[in-house]
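Please check these two lines:
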Amino acid sequence: MGRRNASRWIVVATMAVAVVAGALAWWNVAPTRESQTARKGGNAIAVVTARVEKRDVPVRLRSNGTVTAVQSVDIRAQVTSTVRTVHIREGQAVRSGELLFSLDARAEQAALRKAEAQVTKDLADLEVARRNLERQRELFAQKFISQSALDTAQNQVDSLNGQLAVDRAAAESAKVAQAYTEIRASFPGRTGVIGVRPGSLVQPNGSVLVTVTQIDPITVAFTLPEKELAGLQAALAAGEVQVRARAEGAPDPFVGKLIFVDNAVDTATATIRVKAAFANADVRLWPGMFVNVSLAPRTLAGASVVPAQAVQTGPDNQFVYVVDQDRKVTQQPVTLAYIDAGFAVVNGVAPGARVVIEGAQNLRPGSVVTEADRKGQGKQPDAGKGDITGEKSGKAEIGGST
């Protein structure tokens, strides 16, 4: 009985080993079968390719920016008085020089009239002194008076001239004080919240009457990496640098120009602050808004451009699969110089070469390929020309706007 049981266990173990071996064999063969289903025309593997283009590529920098006013001023009174009239509304657009507030100016007007009256008196006294000086000169010429008498008359004229100058300055000061009772906008802008009403007492350095903010033109402040500083400076030296800003919900980007590069790099973030100015006549940009900013201060001339998906990453480097005239692929190492939406600038592959952009996962160096369209329908390429033309051929255009 013991021998029979041992024989049965041997048979069972043998069958189990056979089953496991069959499963492993199927597991190893399955990927091969799947890869074979992707091949068209014998051993050729279906791929999608594109030509390496040679063109100038603007290096587009992107950042998040904040809309800031060109200037914003808190309007305060410069004399102690009461508000007589408020000439503006909250949120109103005002022009340069437009009257905003009128203060009680009775005291200032009285002081100005007094100063002007004193100037008038000085002028009359001076005229009398001058006529007296002329008579004293005539008498001195006839030797009827002494030199000291003539000098006294001359001194009287000189003293009155000095007093007239002092009183005229006092009158100008009174005019300035009266002008402070009419508060005007110093630049065009938009008013904010009005902090006073008629009858409110205002004092120098007191509460804010209103804040006026200039919003046309308007600026956007943002930061760029320190490494882009040299390119920014070169672009500004060569001419105007165009900047685009897009606000959330805006149908079109705003187009402006770079106007400011800070004089120091922020050591904490290794960035530099910059500003761009934008026309804002339609008042779509508002101080405090966040916008997406882009600019292209430099250009890569004669760059080799490929679709971004053509660049593969290996254990040691990045590479692309290049298809030769015999429809065989070679692994070409490249260095990535710049990447943008849908395309990449690479060094190490010649313009005009045909590179694989789809199906690279099935390739090995030396693999034979055939062109396939986006639907997976294979097509035999023209080996002599080494190119595929037309939509049905499956040729991919390099995307991304430059």
About this structure: Residues 64 and 269 are 15 Å apart (CA to CA). Residues 37-57+301-393 form a domain with the conserved putative lor/sdh protein from methanococcus maripaludis s2 fold fold (CATH 2.40.420.20). Helices lie at 2-37, 106-141, 147-179, 229-238.
